[in-house]
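In response to the reviewer comment on reproducibility (Comment 2.3), we provide here a single inverse folding case reported in full, input and output, so that an independent group could reproduce the run without further information from us. The structure tokens appear first.
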């Protein structure tokens, strides 16, 4: 069984196909973390060593053992107040304002299936027998505080997930001041940490460095997971590479502010943790109330960082993404934004749609600018009524005309926002997040609606249903274009709850809409990739990766995004050159190859501006994409080289059974009379032969995976090559 409790040794062991995770309830009721690594059996208590620690704190009052210090021991759930002076997962204050608690084990239960979290996204199981859940109950007697540690084990996905629920079972209020969801304590190791950093239009660039003394954290205080830092972190051996060495990862299933921290302590032990941001967080619980800490997905690999990515891809693609679109091919789309911005009318949209249909595009997306008086970005958010004057027809008529061309029809919305210049704001100025007496900070000239309020969510639900019910709409792009600065809600006196309750409100609204429109494809977006996280992926199985569509920059953005998130989610479009953000020109072939690295492929340019000969090229691009999209979405990804460090950026996708593969390479450096660049492949069936489908040449897999494959010599900057391999018998 994936979860085992040994009542004699008090060991709790969690097992997946290739990993083992172990903790122990010690004689004093504390949970000691023992192991997370390669699959094994036995008692890993031997890893914890004891020596005289009496010169420091951390010895509970009832222990009387000078070698026992929670300030040194590896812990499963470190909390403030135990004498562990490292960074805790939980900090609480009692009704008097005093800090500290003492949580001890009282029991546990094991059940079949994955646990679920009320109101929050979480990894799920399809069949009860494919997963097991563990609930460990801890209790603080003084406060009557109960903590339920939740663990979900999906053995064949090789993931273990963690979340927890804090319940005030006492008689007085308590306040949660810090709440992290998962922790890994390493008793030793020369470890690196990888985080994914960026900004608007340059998201998720990998950053790696050695974990030194003290603590290092990244996070978001923006009320959103953010363009700046991703809620995904890898810790690995200093020597680990894509294909070798040990690596561990945490992926937060939450879209609000977060913190991911590593800390090397006085004994060179390393603590890794992830959870809610402390920023503007102070969550009171009255007797009987509870607070749920969002889930973290954990993975371990002893075969390098690449395997971590493939574990995350599979888990998110199959057990976070849900519903009708989870396993379906995503329609190739054309989006009006970079083609027209706000400057369109119904006829110009139809002109674009006609050309799109002729080229084989399957979905037409009308982006921002179709509602109320929205001809620029300073008005009308909140007024979700169709601007029929601008469209020259009703929404139903426009959708029908687009459907008649053979295209699906979709729209853009940004429901969480409101413009000051809107009827909704004029009617309900109190519905925004804003501090009384302080002028709110603007972002893109807009304010954030208070989605912690049920009445605000109800209004949005009604308005959005009003739109979705009036036309044949099969796709919705859900945008979110600023962060939360003034986190003040008029409906509570506990402002430290607002950022968390806001996120719960967003999830509630999305859940209601998805239930009502189960076949509509929702695509997430947040000024590009500002909420590119596993939480949103539970509701939106595709997400616009970045507002930067330049193929060169996209190599880095998509490379970084691929460490934690599946390619099936990755929205990637071919856009016009010179690129509107950085003025770069890249060949159309390369733009196509780079966009095909994502499983949500499309176009974002005025197709009618292209020279006629580009049309055949695009037709071929789309038909190539259809031939490879299952390998992109379902295959294993191998990052063969890096766009940040190497002369060629190459990646490979291989079907799990090794029968088909594609390898794409983009040249990023050109020198005179240079030698060919060689790309070494991975993941093919050893000993087999593979036919490259364009040339028909048959290559031995062992040679491709040893000396590699030469790219054409005398190539040009940004030249790109896509090779398709099929295993041949005999
Ligand atoms: C930001 C998005 O990332 C863009 O794709 C586009 O939808 C604009 N918002 C529209 O305002």
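Designed residues, in position order:
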């Amino acid at each position: 069984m994936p979860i085992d409790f040994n009542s004699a040794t008090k060991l709790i062991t969690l097992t997946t196909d290739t990993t083992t995770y172990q903790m122990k309830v010690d004689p004093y009721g504390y949970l000691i973390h023992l192991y997370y690594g390669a699959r094994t059996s036995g008692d890993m208590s031997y890893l914890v060593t004891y020596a005289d620690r009496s010169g420091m704190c951390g010895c509970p009052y009832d222990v009387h053992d000078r070698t026992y210090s929670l300030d040194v021991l590896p812990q499963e759930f470190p909390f403030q107040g135990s004498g562990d002076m490292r960074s805790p997962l939980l900090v609480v204050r009692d009704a008097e304002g005093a800090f500290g608690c003492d949580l001890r084990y009282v029991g546990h239960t094991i059940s079949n299936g994955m646990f679920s979290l009320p109101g929050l996204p979480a990894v799920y199981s399809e069949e009860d027998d494919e997963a097991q859940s563990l609930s460990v109950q801890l209790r603080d007697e003084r406060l009557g505080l109960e903590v339920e540690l939740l663990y979900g084990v999906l053995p064949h996905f090789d993931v273990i997930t963690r979340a927890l629920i804090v319940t005030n079972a006492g008689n007085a209020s308590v306040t949660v001041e810090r709440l992290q969801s998962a922790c890994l304590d390493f008793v030793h190791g020369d470890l690196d940490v990888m985080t994914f950093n960026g900004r608007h239009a340059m998201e998720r660039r990998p950053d790696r460095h050695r974990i030194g003394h003290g603590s290092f954290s990244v996070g978001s205080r923006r009320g959103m997971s953010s363009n700046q830092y991703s809620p995904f972190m890898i810790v690995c051996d200093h020597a680990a590479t894509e294909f070798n060495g040990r690596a561990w990862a945490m992926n937060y299933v939450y879209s609000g502010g977060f913190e991911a921290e590593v800390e090397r302590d006085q004994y060179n032990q390393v603590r890794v943790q992830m959870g809610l941001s402390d920023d503007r967080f102070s969550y009171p619980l009255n007797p009987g109330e509870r607070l749920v800490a969002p889930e973290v997905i954990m993975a371990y690999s002893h075969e390098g960082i690449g395997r971590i990515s493939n574990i995350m891809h599979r888990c998110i693609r199959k057990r976070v993404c849900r519903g009708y679109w989870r396993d379906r091919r995503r329609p190739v789309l054309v989006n009006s934004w970079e083609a027209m911005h706000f400057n369109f009318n119904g006829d110009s949209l139809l002109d674009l749609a006609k050309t799109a249909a002729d080229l084989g595009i399957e979905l037409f997306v009308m982006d921002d600018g179709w509602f109320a008086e929205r001809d620029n970005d300073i008005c009308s958010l909140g007024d979700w009524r169709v601007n029929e004057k601008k469209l020259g027809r009703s929404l139903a008529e426009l959708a029908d005309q687009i459907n008649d061309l053979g295209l699906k029809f979709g729209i853009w919305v940004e429901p969480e926002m409101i413009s000051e210049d809107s009827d909704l704001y004029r009617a309900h100025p109190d519905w925004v997040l804003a501090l009384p007496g302080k002028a709110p900070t603007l972002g893109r000239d807009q304010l954030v609606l208070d989605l912690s309020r049920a009445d605000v969510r109800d209004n949005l639900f009604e308005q959005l249903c009003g739109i979705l019910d009036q036309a044949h709409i099969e796709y919705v792009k859900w945008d979110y274009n600023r962060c939360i600065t003034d986190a003040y809600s008029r409906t509570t006196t506990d402002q430290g709850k607002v950022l968390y309750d806001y996120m719960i409100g967003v999830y509630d609204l999305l859940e209601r809409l998805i239930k009502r429109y189960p076949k509509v494809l929702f695509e997430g977006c947040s000024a590009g990739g500002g909420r590119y996280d596993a939480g949103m992926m539970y509701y939106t199985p595709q997400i616009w990766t970045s507002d930067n569509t330049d193929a060169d920059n996209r190599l880095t953005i998509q490379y970084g995004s691929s460490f934690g998130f599946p390619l099936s989610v990755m929205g990637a479009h071919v856009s016009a050159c010179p690129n509107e953000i950085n003025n770069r020109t890249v060949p159309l072939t390369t733009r196509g190859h780079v966009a095909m690295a994502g499983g949500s492929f499309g176009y974002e340019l005025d197709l009618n501006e292209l020279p006629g000969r580009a049309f055949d090229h695009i037709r071929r691009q789309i038909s190539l994409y259809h031939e490879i999209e299952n390998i992109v979405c379902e295959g294993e990804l191998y990052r063969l080289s890096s766009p940040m460090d190497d002369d060629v950026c190459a990646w490979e996708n291989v079907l799990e059974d090794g029968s088909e593969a594609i390898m794409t390479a983009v040249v990023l450096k050109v020198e005179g009379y240079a030698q060919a660049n060689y790309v070494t492949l991975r993941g093919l069936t050893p000993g087999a032969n593979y036919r490259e489908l364009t040339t028909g040449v048959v290559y031995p897999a062992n040679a491709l995976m040893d000396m590699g494959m030469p790219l054409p010599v005398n190539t040009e900057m940004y030249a790109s090559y896509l090779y398709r391999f099929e295993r041949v018998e005999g």
